[in-house]
């Protein structure tokens, strides 16, 4: 019995049919991931995947993934499998390494950030990741909601930054403004009007400082700020 149209592929999942020379679940997912990586928006179609695999009928793919949502589940879990969490030790080090590993995965697959928000993380790779991350914060002795909150704070930073990256890549492709210099030049006349208008004095002062975008806050710095806040929270809870 095929999975429900909008259900997770993991729910009552029937085994996929035996692999053929052209098709298997692994080949379908690998082709979908590769095509999504090549697309500025990360969008893929079953027809494009079928063409990539050299099969005439996109419908043949559904035998291996159940539905388009099922394919999304499998693609997302495939990338979760690229994220590593060190063995339990210092919780902050573990969450930092998880965040950096997840950010590296998002940079390889920007679409992952969007799809990760669209489907619950219940595949085997996602469960392994969450289990490892929860093991890392066990030492803090926090309640269940706070423990998962620590993990999701870090992953939320990753996925939020990933969505910004995906939108930036999509916009650059649509507008043809491929570099920061091109984008700055295109915006220059508008920004000059804003400075001349005088209604936004603090923003205008920032624009007038030497190279205001030279010290862009990196993902790594944002992650450290997040971890600083989590550490203060953990210390407060311990003192209660």
TrEMBL record:
Which Pfam families does the record associate with it?
Answer: TetR_C_1
Chain spans, region Disordered: 1-21
The coiled-coil segments of this chain are none
One Gene Ontology term of the biological-process aspect is:
negative regulation of DNA-templated transcription
Q: Which residues form the Tetracycline repressor TetR C-terminal domain?
A: 87-232
Gene Ontology molecular-function annotations: DNA-binding transcription factor activity; transcription cis-regulatory region binding
Keywords of this entry: DNA-binding, Transcription, Transcription regulation
Superkingdom of this protein's organism: Bacteria
- Asked if DNA-binding is a keyword of the record, the answer is yes
Asked whether the keyword Transcription regulation is assigned, the reply is yes
Name this protein carries in UniProt: AcrR family transcriptional regulator
């Amino acid at each position: 019995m095929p999975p429900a149209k909008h259900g997770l592929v993991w729910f009552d999942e029937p085994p996929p049919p035996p692999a053929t020379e052209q098709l298997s679940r692994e080949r379908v997912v690998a082709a979908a991931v590769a095509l999504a990586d090549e697309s500025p928006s990360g969008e893929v179609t079953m027809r494009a995947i079928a063409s990539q695999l050299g099969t005439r009928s996109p419908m043949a793919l559904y035998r291996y993934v159940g539905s388009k949502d099922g394919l999304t589940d499998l693609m997302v879990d495939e990338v979760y499998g690229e994220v590593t969490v060190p063995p339990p030790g210092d919780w902050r080090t573990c969450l930092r390494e998880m965040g950096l590993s997840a950010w590296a995965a998002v940079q390889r697959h920007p679409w992952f950030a969007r799809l990760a928000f669209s489907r619950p993380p219940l595949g085997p790779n996602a469960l392994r990741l969450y289990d490892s991350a929860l093991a890392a914060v066990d030492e803090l002795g926090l309640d269940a909601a706070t423990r998962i909150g620590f993990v999701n704070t870090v992953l939320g930073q990753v996925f939020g930054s990933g969505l910004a990256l995906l939108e930036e890549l999509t916009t650059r492709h649509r507008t043809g403004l491929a570099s920061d210099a091109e984008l700055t030049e295109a915006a220059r006349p508008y920004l000059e009007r804003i400075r001349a208008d005088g209604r936004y004095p603090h923003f205008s002062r920032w624009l007038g400082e030497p190279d205001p975008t030279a010290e862009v806050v990196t993902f790594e710095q944002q992650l450290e700020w997040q971890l600083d806040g989590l550490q203060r929270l953990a210390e407060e809870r311990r003192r209660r």
